[in-house]
Write a structure and sequence with these properties.
single chain, 104 residues, mainly alpha, 6 helices, 0% strand
Length: 104
């Protein structure tokens, strides 16, 4: 869980003061974000089934599935989808992971 939290923070650092249009123009940031989303997906695959059952509010399968898509279809990655994840999904994931860590 700590790995997920740290990786989310890394993505936030990479995209601070950014926008979709800026992201589209900066392949270096896109590469860094994509790599870290892959890491989150891999970390999710290693979380115990018990934690996943206790926290159905996290879309565990979708996160792991995103990792697989990113790894196998890298050149087909849609930056708009990545931006949506950064803006809408990662903040929620970060908050929930923090709550889980406090309970452990």
């Amino acid at each position: 869980m700590d790995d997920i939290l740290e990786t989310v923070k890394r993505i936030e650092k990479y995209t601070k003061n950014s926008s979709l249009s800026k992201l589209k123009k900066n392949s270096l940031i896109v590469d860094g974000v994509v790599r870290n989303l892959e890491i989150i997906g891999e970390a999710v695959k290693n979380i115990s089934p018990q934690i996943k059952i206790q926290h159905p509010e996290i879309e565990w399968k979708k996160i792991a599935g995103l990792r697989d898509i990113l790894v196998h279809e890298y050149f087909g990655v849609d930056v708009e989808v990545i931006w949506d994840i950064i803006v809408h999904k990662l903040p929620e994931l970060k908050l929930t992971v923090r709550r889980i860590i406090k309970k452990l």
